[in-house]
Amino acid sequence: MVHRGAPCESSSRASYSGPGYRASSGCAFPSSRYRYVITYQSCGSSRRGRRLMRQVIGDQLGDFAAIYDEDVEVVSVTRPQARTCEALAERLVRSRQVPQLRWVQSADDPVAPASELPSTIDADVRSALLDQIAEASEMLGELMDCERVGVRLETLSAPMCPRFHADHVPCRMLITLSGVGTEWIPNSDVDWAVFADRGTTAPPIQANRQIQRFTTGHWSLLKGGAWNDGFDGVVHRSPHGVGERLLLSLDPVY
Asked: At 149, phi and psi to the nearest 5?
């Protein structure tokens, strides 16, 4: 088995039956017409016969249904008011009012984040954060048929996960609220021998390929190593040397 990079943090590994799970979940995310689809060119087959994977970029929440396609590794969706939210998030970062916050809440409980965010945060900034967390949590719960969601909100002045790695979770949503977005490598572009070498800090990317970066403000859903047995998870890391960032991440909890 190809070695997986160590996950950034421990995560719930409760039962999950992979992409086929959607058929019986009653998920209310019908397939929609994708606005943009980027298909990365194949770099040849590996010893595991990895398939060509795609990234889907959309502008509707319904586009997240594409995560259940076997050849999709990432779905990234632009959200309304992203620039406004980014400006508010930058204010929050400058205020130094956000410590490292982590909690688990009911996916459909819009009130839950209010008990976790400090009341000292400016009212308009706090309101925008509460709306963002509540909407993303409800969407992820409905999409993944989970009752609870793990939430993490952190201001980062240095890379939280400096090495490229894949998280051993079914999936993870990453939302860079301010600062530079998370870096990632398409599955077919990963140099798996370098990835497995714990003695090197070199990016595990094949020659003449480029490291990708999620757009700030987009909701980006990444398949993890526990999605199913045929996929090792999206390889990604925190960006280096880019200043402070405000990162929101959400995990389904079973």
From this structure: -135, 135
Is 5 a member of any domain? no
Quote the CA–CA distance of 221 and 145 in Å, as a whole number.
Answer: 15
User: In this structure, what CATH number is given to the domain that contains residue 193?
Assistant: 2.60.120.10
Measured between alpha carbons, how far is 227 from 224 in angstroms, rounded to an integer? 5
The predicted pLDDT at position 201 comes to 86
For residue 55, tell me if it sits in a domain: yes
Instruction: Note down the domain range covering 122.
Output: 18-253
Assess contact for 187 and 224: CB atoms under 8 A. no
Interval 2-12: pLDDT, tens: 233 333 433 33
Residue 154 lies in a domain: yes
* 144: in domain: yes
- Give 105-149 pLDDT, tens digit per residue: 999 999 999 999 999 999 999 999 999 999 999 999 999 999 999
Q: Which two tokens stand for residue 241?
A: 């040397």
What 3-state DSSP class applies to 152?
strand
Strands (E), the chain: 36-39, 54-58, 72-77, 101-106, 148-156, 171-178, 183-185, 212-213, 219-223, 235-237, 245-253
| C-alpha 202 chain-centroid distance | 22
Distance CA 138, CA 241 (A): 33
Tally of domains in the chain: 1
